[in-house]
Amino acid sequence: MRRIGLYGSSFDPVTNVHLWTASTIAHRCKLDLVIFLPCSHRRRDKKMKTSDQHRKNLLEMAIEGNSKFIVDDYEMNQEVWKIDTFSTMKHFKKQYPEDELYFMMGADLLEDIGEEKWDNSQKLIEENRFIVMAREGIDMLHVISKYPILRNQDDGSTFHLVDKGLAMEISSTYIREEFSRGGEPRYLLPEKCYVYIKTNGLYGSKG
């Protein structure tokens, strides 16, 4: 039985922090595989700055050569009314029935689930396991104890809390802004991705 982490995000674009986070979690939590799940441009709660295909291409370049990392475009191919994390986890549990799956997320998203802002929040927590990554200013244990939907499912194995130990919070937003304003974010993302973005004029960059 393998241990698999599902890492969902917009990856708009993927950054070195995304990669470092995935690598750190894989090492600390003894994961055999991390599946990067770029979300669809159809998501109602997000507004993408470039196409699904470009974001997928960038991710595939970024993880090239790492046998523990793969990209899956499952959510990109779903209709908007079918996209929610509970459904995504259900799909991958069918795809990997013999393995142990974890949804990887930041502590800020754990708060959102606690407040039931996500579709099927109750069933999501009841039927899945999570790796929760620390965010500055958020006490993960306090968040779990604060919300009944979280604390009543906390049997000791539902939430694996991870403090990465280093506050690396360079965001995709920051990188996009640097590109669009003539900045130089070159070493905040993989070199191949940097070249691809410049070549294709993404995020307002100039080739």
From TrEMBL:
PANTHER family: NICOTINATE-NUCLEOTIDE ADENYLYLTRANSFERASE-RELATED, PHOSPHOPANTETHEINE ADENYLYLTRANSFERASE. InterPro entries: Cyt_trans-like (IPR004821), NadD/NMNAT (IPR005248), Rossmann-like_a/b/a_fold (IPR014729). GO terms for molecular function: nucleotidyltransferase activity. HAMAP family: NaMN_adenylyltr. Pfam families: CTP_transf_like. Keywords: ATP-binding, NAD, Nucleotide-binding, Nucleotidyltransferase, Pyridine nucleotide biosynthesis, Transferase. Belongs to the NadD family. Residues 6-177 form the Cytidyltransferase-like domain. The lineage of its organism: Bacteria, Bacillati, Bacillota, Bacilli, Bacillales. Catalyzes the reversible adenylation of nicotinate mononucleotide (NaMN) to nicotinic acid adenine dinucleotide (NaAD). This is Probable nicotinate-nucleotide adenylyltransferase. It is an enzyme of class 2 (transferase). The gene is nadD. SUPFAM superfamilies: Nucleotidylyl transferase (SSF52374). The keyword Cell inner membrane does not apply.
